[in-house]
Design goal:
Radius of gyration of chain B: 23 Å
Strand order of the largest sheet of chain A: 1-3-2-4-6-5-10-11-9-7-8
Structural class of chain A: alpha/beta
Shape of chain B: flat
Keywords (chain B): ATP-binding, Ligase, Nucleotide-binding, Protein biosynthesis
CATH topology of one domain in chain B: Histone, subunit A
EC number (chain B): 6.3.5.-
Number of strands of chain A: 11
Distance between the termini of chain B: 38 Å
CATH superfamily of one domain in chain A: Amidase signature (AS) domain
Radius of gyration of chain A: 21 Å
CATH class of one domain in chain B: Mainly Alpha
Subunit structure (chain B): Heterotrimer of A, B and C subunits.
Strand order of the largest sheet of chain B: 1-2
GO molecular function, one term (chain B): ATP binding
Strand content of chain A: 5-15%
Number of helices of chain B: 3
CATH architecture of one domain in chain A: Alpha-Beta Complex
CATH architecture of one domain in chain B: Orthogonal Bundle
Oligomer: heterodimer
Pfam family, one (chain B): GatC
Largest interface: A-B, 69 and 56 residues
């Protein structure tokens, strides 16, 4: 393994800017690492080796020409394959979009390219981002670099595994119910979900539009903040994008690294502590993390968020409802797969056959569940009630943030589980997102930062902040990270087949 | 609450334009029933006087000036289509013989 793949994105950007190495050299080092370990890890669905080297050469030329680029210029990045990339396959890990080449770049990808980041390729995920283990990818699962018999989390398992296995220093994920943070926690990486609307959704293949949010997957909190600053901000192409400047996240992360949290009030949610099913090792690592925050000067208090326990059931009505509507666009007419069009069948039948062949089991389950929840006679009982729960969860957050600056919770109830252990029972799989879903319903930012090991596997600690106070969560997360030596992210897991 | 029947799943799948096999009808009926019973308790707290929230960001219509500008080029729009004829999307027949 090249020494270059051991560095953080911040270090790589600085070395490239100082002329100690070049974007091409760094890109080649990561492509070699991908060649060496991706046959085992399977983090990537598509590696754009030649375009990446060409893009890196262009960045080197811009730097040589004296162009002022950002701190991540020349740094490679992997992008979750639900974000569209011009002339690069985008499949959402579904057979229905096999070999599809989008005609445009998502806004966040355009921003990455403009800032000089080099797109290495597209990472694996649960089909259409529906899942918590990356086992629902139509192209086969990704393996957790810490233990290849275990899941890398989901839906962004590919992005998290790519960063954990040093196949990319940075990755983009999307988080609808925890799909950035939960894979981050189980692979020992940092996963940040910015405030809803803080990063443009233009060019994200929609799953649940009122919840989906793109964000950074990285090795360190500072790297996440640097990437957040590149992709954040208002976008005219996304009418739900917030028209306000990106909060000072990099400055906050640097302040956090000084390790002083004096004057910061951290709330621990009582109802989470009482929730059933959390593994003792996860709880112990979380409690040790909270102890550390106290030692750094933070005041830790218990707060009550009585409706958080209803967030998971509300999510599993809202997300499938929105997905059943969003996925109606996959009708075999304008792009993607078409099945059964032999001249003997009418459109409706071709559509049904196409969707049957193109969608995997979890997508079908959610489309049917969503159709049920939105159907006449059940709408008020399910979808309508779920939207009221969303109001109650939001009120809980608002009340909590009147007492404290941030909330802390475990990111996941359990460490990475073995493949196949939860696929038989969807409701068991859904529990993986128990602690992450409330902030999606509320729309505030949340980050998962590694806080220790349980049974030799990584555990994440989650920091949630008020809407548009993303800087607060970066400060607290960076402070926690500063106490770790070596950082979990610096311990490269040995990848074995 | 009544259990979700195979017939109901078949009807929902039809509404969603999703062909399903006999095996899938059995599997989904059982799983949907389990999922729906596990989420039904949201009714415990969602009282009449609570307003629903559909979105984390309060939204009003976002308008822009109505200025003509070029759209996606025809070749680009058709490039990913499963079937193309005479520079258009070719669609299976909408009405079947017997309709």
């Amino acid at each position: 393994m090249s020494e270059l793949t051991g560095r953080t994105a911040e270090e790589l950007g600085a070395a490239i800017a100082a002329g100690e190495t070049s974007a091409v050299e760094v890109t080649r080092a990561y492509l070699e690492r991908i060649d060496a370990v991706d046959p085992t890890v399977h983090a990537f669905l598509h590696v754009a080796a030649e375009p990446a080297v060409a893009q890196a050469a262009e960045v080197d030329r811009r730097i040589a020409a004296g162009e002022k680029l950002g701190p991540l210029a020349g740094v490679p990045i992997a992008v979750k394959d639900i974000v569209v990339t011009k002339d690069m396959p985008t499949t959402a890990a579904s057979k229905i979009l096999e070999n599809w080449l989008p005609p445009y770049d998502a806004t966040l990808v355009r921003k990455l390219r403009e800032a000089g980041l080099v797109v290495l390729g597209k990472t694996n995920l649960d089909e259409f981002a529906m899942g918590s283990s990356t086992e629902y990818s139509a192209y086969g699962p990704t393996r957790n670099p810490w233990d290849t018999s275990r899941i890398p989390g989901g839906s962004g398992g590919g992005s998290a595994a790519a960063v954990a296995a040093r196949e990319a220093p940075l990755a983009i994920g999307t988080d609808t119910g925890g799909s950035i943070r939960q894979p981050g926690a189980v692979t020992g990486t940092v996963g940040a979900k910015p405030t809803y609307g803080g990063v443009s959704r233009y060019g994200l293949i929609a799953f649940s539009s009122s919840l989906d949010q793109a964000g950074p997957v990285t090795r360190t909190v500072t790297d996440a903040a640097l990437l957040h600053e590149v992709i954040g901000g208002h976008d005219r192409c996304d009418s739900t994008s917030i028209d306000a400047p990106v909060p000072p996240v990099v400055e906050a992360a640097r302040r956090g690294l000084t390790g002083d949290l004096t004057g910061v009030k951290v709330g621990v949610v009582r109802e989470f502590a009482a929730a059933q099913g959390a593994e003792p090792g996860v709880v112990a690592a979380f409690e040790a993390g909270v102890q550390t925050l106290t030692k750094l000067g933070a005041e830790v208090v218990e707060v009550s968020c009585p409706h958080f326990e209803y967030a998971l059931p509300a999510y599993y009505l809202i997300a499938p409802s929105e997905c059943s509507s969003n996925l109606a666009r996959f009708d075999g007419v304008r792009y993607g797969l078409r099945v059964g069009d032999d001249g003997s069948r009418a459109l409706e039948e071709v559509m049904s056959l196409t969707r049957d062949r193109g969608f995997g089991p979890e997508v079908k389950r959610r489309v049917i569940l969503g159709t049920y929840a939105l159907s006449a006679g059940y709408y008020d009982a399910f979808y309508g009630q779920a939207q009221k729960v969303r109001t109650l969860v939001t009120r809980d957050f608002t009340a909590a943030f009147e007492q404290v600056d941030v909330l802390a919770a475990p990111t996941t109830p359990f460490v990475a589980f073995p493949f196949g252990s939860r696929t038989a029972d969807p409701t068991q799989m859904y529990l993986a997102d128990l602690y992450t879903i409330p902030s999606n319903l509320y729309g505030g930012p949340a980050i998962s930062v590694p806080c220790g090991l349980s049974e030799g596997l990584p555990v994440g600690l989650q920091i949630m902040a008020p809407t548009m106070a993303d800087d607060r969560m970066y400060r607290v997360a960076a402070a926690l990270e500063s106490t770790q030596s070596p950082r979990l992210a610096d311990q490269t897991p040995e990848v074995t087949a | 609450m009544a259990a979700i029947s195979r017939e109901e799943v078949a009807h929902l799948a039809h509404l969603a334009r999703l062909a399903v096999t006999e095996d899938e009808l059995d599997t989904f009926a059982g799983q949907l029933d389990q999922i729906v019973s596990s989420v039904a308790r949201i009714g415990e707290v969602a009282a009449d006087d609570i307003a629903p929230t559909s979105h984390a960001v309060p939204l009003t219509n976002v308008m822009r000036a109505d200025e003509p500008r070029p759209g996606l080029a025809r070749e680009a729009a058709l490039a990913g289509a499963p079937a193309v004829e005479d520079d258009r999307f070719r669609v299976p027949q909408i009405l079947s013989e017997e309709a």
